[in-house]
Specification:
The structure is a single chain. By secondary structure, the chain is of the alpha/beta class. The chain has 3 domains: 46 residues; 60 residues, no CATH class; 275 residues, Ribonuclease H-like superfamily/Ribonuclease H (Nucleotidyltransferase, domain 5). Helices cover 49% and strands 10% of the residues. It has 18 helices and 7 strands. The strands form 2 sheets. A 5-stranded mixed β-sheet has the order 3-2-1-4-5, sandwiched between helices. A two-stranded antiparallel sheet has the order 6-7. The longest helix has 20 residues. The radius of gyration is 30 Å and the shape is elongated. The protein starts with a helix and ends in a 10-residue tail after the last helix.
Length: 425
Amino acid sequence: MSKVEKESILSVTRRRYAMMRTKKARGRILDEFCGTTGFSRKHAIKVLSASRSSIGRRGCPPGGTREGSALLVKLWKLSDMMCGKLLKEVVRHYLSSLRRREVVSDEACEEVLGMSASTIDRRLRMVKAKTGGGKRRRRESLDMHRREIPLKIESWPEAYPKEPGWIEADTVAHCGGSMAGSFNWTLTLTDVATAWTELRSVWNKGAEGIRDSVGDVIAEVPFYVHAFNSDNGPEFLNSQLKTLFNALQGKVIRTRSRSYRKNDNAHVEQKNSVQVRALFGYGRIDDPALLPLMNRINKLQGLIKNLFTPTMRLLSKERVGARYCKRYEKTPKTPAQRVLESAAVSEEHKEKVREMLAKHDICELRARLNTELRLLAKALNNPAGASGNTLQRQQDHRLQPLAGPVTLSVSSHLTQPVRLRDKVS
């Protein structure tokens, strides 16, 4: 029976059912109607009773209130567009920081705090839909350093150490799709156990710049570094880094990945995408005068990600048929939380992390980062470049700076976050 036929029978039967005055007569009509349409008896009573009013939805409206949705979107942009599972764990801290700068109603706060991770993702679904030839290598020197540095699989106790201090390193080229000439690079170092990540930008991945950046990170991270793993690139296999690690007198184990095995450095490879490319995109940045600005951006990005951005560690990975079944920890934690909870970290380093948490505020860091990104976008869009050299840029419309004067107003940055992203044409 088609839907049109059911509607026709329903309209006729509803009038007959309304005319019946006895229970027995209504029962005969119900039996006939249920046998014809296949409706259950309870459902037939509901659809045939014209005077029966439908019960409306109780509680909060399905889409939430307008104020609650606006507040959720603002917090989501402030958190660098986290997923619902991660945002749920830190939304209380972000909200308390925001309320110190803006007037937020108690009803909207209660609505956001009462949302589950699934509700957050569902409420943000529509918002997410709208946002969318070098020099020849000296093979003899590289082979010599390879023979001196052991492989990671031979020296690390396990692929996924549980205590801080086991670091993976890699470099990202801001070449715009062409490796010709000189351009800026970004060095990424991430701790496997805590996901603590540091970024440093250097010119042309020179050996001295990489050496100074690695030494700076080893001295600044809030834990003792036990091992340093890199790929087989000449920026890592050189005498400059060898001198640095010799000066550490064996305190840091230096290892390297197997050739053509990117999974040996999987944790830092993932950070290259979610942190470096999310900041600077895929366009060409070939101006050394921009390095101080890029490193200021790297510093702010490190504070935001390490202090206020939670991650979920992979607990197990099992192959079931043609698929992999991955299990993650239930409660996401920030890198700072993992450092504070680790028994292997000294109290002196933990106190350093506590001071960083007390000193910095997420709203202030996000506003400063957006301001620096605007300055970088303006410099990249300037045909003369930051140093006065005419450089060829490969950028799209998303690199255009926002209209209007740059301001440190928190609300303006939350509503229009700046992200330097472009694709290789």
